[in-house]
Model the fold of this input.
Amino acid sequence: MNPLYRRIADQYRSAIHAGSLRPGDRFPSVRTLMRTHTVSLSTALQACRQLEDEGWLEARARSGYFVQHPRRRGLPPATEQGLRPIDPAAYVGISAHVSEILARGQRQPVTANLALAVAPSALYPGEALSRIMQRKLRLQPTALVSMTRRHGHPLLRAALARRVLARGVAAAPEEVVITQGATEAMNLALRAVTQPGGTVAVESPSFYGLLQIIEALGLRAIELPTSPRDGLSVEALAFALDSDPSIQAVAVMPTLHNPLGCTMPDARKAALVALCAERGVALIEDDIYGEMSPQPARPLKAWDRAGGVIHCNSLSKILAPGLRLGWMLAGRWQARVEMLKYTQSRFPEELPQATVAEFLDSPAYDRHLRRLNEALRQHRDAYADRIATHFPPGTRVTLPEGGMLLWLQLPDGASGDTLFDAALARGIKIAPGSMFSTGRRYDGCVRLSCGRAMDEDVDAALRTLGSLVRGA
Amino acid sequence: MNPLYRRIADQYRSAIHAGSLRPGDRFPSVRTLMRTHTVSLSTALQACRQLEDEGWLEARARSGYFVQHPRRRGLPPATEQGLRPIDPAAYVGISAHVSEILARGQRQPVTANLALAVAPSALYPGEALSRIMQRKLRLQPTALVSMTRRHGHPLLRAALARRVLARGVAAAPEEVVITQGATEAMNLALRAVTQPGGTVAVESPSFYGLLQIIEALGLRAIELPTSPRDGLSVEALAFALDSDPSIQAVAVMPTLHNPLGCTMPDARKAALVALCAERGVALIEDDIYGEMSPQPARPLKAWDRAGGVIHCNSLSKILAPGLRLGWMLAGRWQARVEMLKYTQSRFPEELPQATVAEFLDSPAYDRHLRRLNEALRQHRDAYADRIATHFPPGTRVTLPEGGMLLWLQLPDGASGDTLFDAALARGIKIAPGSMFSTGRRYDGCVRLSCGRAMDEDVDAALRTLGSLVRGA
Done:
């Protein structure tokens, strides 16, 4: 017999079919469902998620679920793909492959760049930041010629400590280490906790930047099953830790994962932190999209009691893509991270830090976040809508709660690499799935960024992509 | 019998004793000596160098030799110290030692910082750079929020290629890779050409930053005999390459060495490049003080025909200590360096690059260089003068042709580490010699920076240091 949540879901699916719930209608709240059907919170939630997974419902920030536009229903969500065993030889060469893809993308004139995981500059507070920086330059004429002094400007460290406190992490300003973007932070984190030849457990798929760092540091990545909805499988990690003693660190993106877009539920985050603490394995989190989450998302660091979590973050995606301002909380490895940072690139420039600190501490930052996230929500909806229209049946896509990344599984037989080449020849840039795995597991996938607002060019690009996939 | 050059030197020494040549007098030019004594260029030069080594003569930029101030005569130049064999255990731990020294220096309030290898901000064109940056911010309001795109701003790459052309290096703008200071450039260079466990041949003493990088990358440093006047012994390097096949790179500072202050003569630079090319060993040069040389100093890269030299440089010491703008010419490793750079910290911020490019291309840059180098020359003279007055007999010191670093050999028995502690307790910061060798060979030495102009505080600090050495 069907479990209870499925029977509830069936009932509402019929209501949508019957037209009693129409696209755009607000779906009954979880509280209402609990009362109406006398079920537990978890059963009510499961029912909503079932319908969401099937494409009938859409979750909106702080507003609950809404019935989905019919065309969108044509797009089933991306699934977790079975992990094939990997030929050891396939562990090498991801950097060369990614560099090749990036280089080819740069040689070609591009009219629609759907590969760029950042929003266009108009969505960031460029003028406000610029005015602050100009004032600081006027007031402090030696700003550019005074030697940099610390692992972060005191005002920026304090501002970031306050921001992360609101997300459940208590950190002293002195624990914040400012870095050259999250990329440097991830490098330092991995250098601090691993030895060359060691293994790093990662999600599958994973952001190619992480795979490149792992390879460039002489480490090996082991890719673990990851659900496009709930993230890394903690059970699979436990199994891997039991069977592979060379695993020295776990590196994940628990909130708005790149490329999957998924966020681990809190219970799963807590279990992951507990598992790594128990096994004494360093847990590194990349949280650069954390503040793009519609619900305030707690980072793994919020569950860290023993200093075993290294939190890596950046302001490049959320506030200022032109500044390379990353930061990290390195837990019990802070002294080692500070030493490595000094050795690798000394102390960061102070003027951009002071500029951003002032902005973060003003009400303008929260206003900016709301505006950015609302714009990205609209972009995601519009892109999903056009993808549903233009792509052939059999295409599956994630519809993440926040951020700007859509992960597409192409119909059987279609190749992301082939699509990349054909699209590039037509001035369209996408990120092929092969970039996101050392084992090249995801050639049947592509990542599309919806940072840019929908317009005629993007619509035409998506139509071209769809017809290329049909022709494949 | 004395060689010819010694007999000529004896003659002029007597003339100085007799007062026929007085302190401050211009010494006969090399051309005059050749004519007067009917000797070869090399004999005339050797005679001058002999007197210079004894402290009787001082070389000045483009003006030839001058008879030295009598007090300065009391200060014999630093000598090359015999290299003891090193216990392999001593290879580890330089980073921890240096971090400890740096951390102790930061905990203590300091009134006279003679450890900082950078000039005070007043000697840099802070206001001019600030005005350029303000204008760029006004004209391009999206500067801080547009994603960084390349391995360097085209205008800065072109400006640096022009500057280095004037020093004998022909490089296309696209060969210039912009980095986070010379520190990141040296990291990338070493990562590009070595494997963990490999050995890097370095000068002895060497800048501690290089030793830290080598250690942090899991490499081993082998320190080679280095003359405080002529730099690395190429013969010793040839011998080391013959006997140690694990040497994968040579990393040197051929112009105004830190801490020795010495510059390799052109013939020695050429021989070094030729040796490394012949043996197929990567040659990495740190040239950050290159433009502080009174004579235009050719970098090793000027002799590079096969792309085997990696030139690392920075604008932090010469132009803008508040900006972390380094750069490099990576020769045949350029593609690998660009890949590693992308993996390590992505592309650099564009605004500071555009700002500096505009300044470099204006006549103001050469004016700034002349002013900076003239100021540092005065500082060096004044510091040497006060050191001669305050320090006990037996102290030896280098008098470099440019830059701001003085290398002192303390009288027998005095320890740089002990002096560091005693001085720090009195608010004076110095760099103890132990920082400049993995084998801690230079505990009898200290490095003093004369970036700051001579004033009462500095004079008092040098007096205190002198009396601490006397009491040691």
Summary: The two ends of chain A are 41 Å apart (CA to CA).
